[in-house]
Design brief:
Shape: rod-shaped
Number of helices: 6
Number of strands: 0
Helix content: over 70%
Bound molecules: zinc ion
Number of domains: 2
Radius of gyration: 43 Å
Strand content: under 5%
Order of helices and strands: HHHHHH
Mean pLDDT: 80
Oligomer: single chain
Largest sheet: none
Low-confidence stretches: none
């Protein structure tokens, strides 16, 4: 098996790597087919070493910008609705706690009021038999219900408004 070799190969290779061509080597490389091939391969190897081809391609700047904008918007939306969500939870807890504590505290009176309500309601449909306590309880429950409802609606509207942007 015949191997094509040139005695100047090593010098030509060094010249390509260093970029410094001696006159004799340069003139030889311009006429020697083997050395021309060495130059081509060496140059190609240098280009390959310079470009990180094995690394995954970076996303385009437009893509990065778009994603940053999206993340910013998401964060802003979360920040905007967080106080509402906290208020909603607090309102629910307060409503439940006040109803429970009020019921426990005024239970005998509630029972009495319910008995009066039960006895009086079907007969003449009058609100007169209701004690002031039961009226205040009903208005309190209605008020808390309305507060929770408004908070829920506000949250839903805020969510929709941010989603449309
Ligand atoms: Zn040669």
């Amino acid at each position: 098996m015949k191997v094509w070799e040139c005695p100047y190969e090593t010098e030509v290779l060094q010249a390509v790597q260093s970029g410094q061509w001696e006159r004799l080597i340069h003139s030889h490389a311009s006429v020697c087919a083997i050395c021309q091939e060495v130059v081509q391969v060496a140059e190609w190897m240098q280009v390959l070493a310079a470009t990180p081809e094995n690394e995954p391609a970076l996303p385009s700047p437009a893509q990065i910008w778009w994603k940053a904008q999206w993340l910013e918007k998401q964060a802003a939306g979360e920040q905007a609705t967080r106080p509402i969500a906290i208020f909603q939870h607090v309102a629910c807890v307060v409503a439940v706690l006040s109803l429970v504590s009020l019921s426990a505290w005024k239970w005998p009176e509630i029972q009495g009021g319910l008995n009066v309500f039960k006895q009086a309601w079907p007969r003449d449909w009058s609100l007169a038999p209701l004690t002031s306590l039961s009226l205040s309880l009903i208005s309190l429950a209605l008020g808390l219900f309305c507060t929770t409802l408004i908070a829920t609606l506000y949250t839903l509207l805020a969510d929709n408004g941010l989603g449309k942007e």
